[in-house]
Amino acid sequence: MKVKVLILGATSAIARATAAAFAERGADLFLASRDENELQRIAADLRLRYGIDVQHGYFDAEATDTHEGFFKSVLDAIPNLSGVVLAFGFLGDSLAAREFSVGAKVIARNFTGAASILSHCANYFELQKSGFIIGIASVAGDRGRQSNYVYGAAKGAFSLYLQGLRNRLFASGVRVITIKPGFVDTVMTYGMPGLFLVATPQIIGERIVAALEKSADVVYLPWFWRYIMLIIKHIPEPIFKRMKL
After folding, report:
1. What would the pLDDT profile of 164-205 be if each residue is shown by its tens digit?
2. 4-240 fold
3. Total-model pTM
4. Which of 20, 43, 72, 231 has the least C-beta neighbours within 10 A?
């Protein structure tokens, strides 16, 4: 059966690379984000390059009251949906820790909006007793650090949500994969101080799709971030709280 994938947040660098990796394998796609003009350009490029069917539509992660209707429109456009990749997010800035109006947007986009749309996707796949959900979290969610703890808290909550969803959907034959990228060369990270071991979106996108062919439920990308975060998570709190991270 033809693989058909919904990509949420499809205009981000990682999502574009993931879409290209799926397209290269012959999958049909539905691309969703708030930037409809950019969606049109990406969709046209993928159709031309890979000869696949690419639909697209407007999606706002924060407008949770529209999510049920949006997902129904996706199923109308591409029946027998095979899977979903949730790739949207919002890093925010230093104000997120000091002004809740900014922090609330970080939480809304990275967790609340993600949990909202995936609730509809999960119900669908559970009834179908097949399918996959890939959620892009972050290594930032593994431990709270002063530089980005609001973003980290939202991504940590999202990781926990995916873990529970995986537990719920396992009996229905639905795969739930948590992706935890480290530093990736994107607009979100451009100009950030202290970056190291930065990966390209193309490598991340290819490995996200490749994760479906493997058995791991939680995938760090690139792989070495699993061990970096293992070290960071095991630093004793009396020491960790004195560190500038």
Report:
1. 999 999 999 999 999 999 988 765 544 445 555 668 999 999
2. Rossmann fold (3.40.50)
3. 0.92
4. 231
Three-point CA angle 143, 228, 86, nearest 5° = 65
Give me the sheet containing 175-181, strands edge to edge.
54-58, 28-33, 4-8, 83-86, 132-136, 175-181, 218-221
Q: Which amino acid, residue 36?
A: E
| Separation of alpha carbons 107 and 113, rounded Å | 8
Q: Are strands 28-33 and 54-58 parallel, antiparallel or unpaired?
A: parallel
Place 91 in a pLDDT band, splitting at 50, 70 and 90.
confident
Q: Can you say whether residue 118 is alpha, beta or left, with left for phi > 0 and alpha for psi between -120 and 50 degrees?
A: alpha
What's the mean per-residue pLDDT of the chain? 92
**Distance of alpha carbon 210 from alpha carbon 191, whole angstroms:** 29
Structure tokens at 62: 């924060």
Number of H helices, E strands in the chain: 9, 7
Distance (Å, whole) CA 9 – CA 119: 17
Q: Which residues pair with 33 in a beta bridge?
A: 58
- Torsion sign, CA atoms 224, 230, 231, 232: positive
% the chain with pLDDT above 90: 84
More confident of the two residues 162 and 96: 162
